[in-house]
Amino acid sequence: MKPSLPPSLFIEFAKFDSCSIANAVDMFRARLPSEGFTGPGLTYRTRSSAPMVGIATTLKVRSSDPSIKPAFYLDHPDWWELIADAPFPRVLVIEDTDVHPGRGSLVGPVHACILKALGFVGVVTSGAIRGIRKFEEIGLHAFSGNVSPSHAFSHVVEIGGPVEIAGIKIANGDLVHGDHDGIVLIPEDLAERVTDAARLVVERERGVCTYCNSRTFSRERLKGIIHADPSRW
User: Average pLDDT of 47-53?
Assistant: First the structure.
């Protein structure tokens, strides 16, 4: 993902929910309608008035067993140096590669504070997090497969490679958007066009809902509205 995307673009993305963003991306037919978003197995753990928007920094972790070689931990300075050049705003995306993901939590209250200070706006993991109240207190978004009270043997085994979270493949540098409905990837080459498309999506959906609540509602007229532009649905 280009680090040169203007900050105003991230502000615009945050004005739309993930459903509208997904529908907007679909308008460009740049990927299959079944691709580019998370499926079952991921829950939004924090409350926020705006969606999470940022650029992915990817990790793979394990927590069930101790590392057999020197490992990275999020509260150690060596990890901070490895992401020094990552563009802002950052989203930490973690794949737990254990056979049974989420035994231990790599990111807890202290790590959340460190990540916030390093320019991260959220954490997305197929494994566990802990200390959700701290995430909410400092305004750090959190998506996870489960929660765990302990870090167990959590350690980083890979930094910067592709990961898979709840059925979606995410590469280091991908632009991600997420809220209570899930995570959506915004293709790099469409990034500066998706907000306009999302605005059209919202306006059209608002028009249909307004008509459905009107006293003049009829099924025939609704059919006409829907059929006027079937590519939008």
Answer: 90
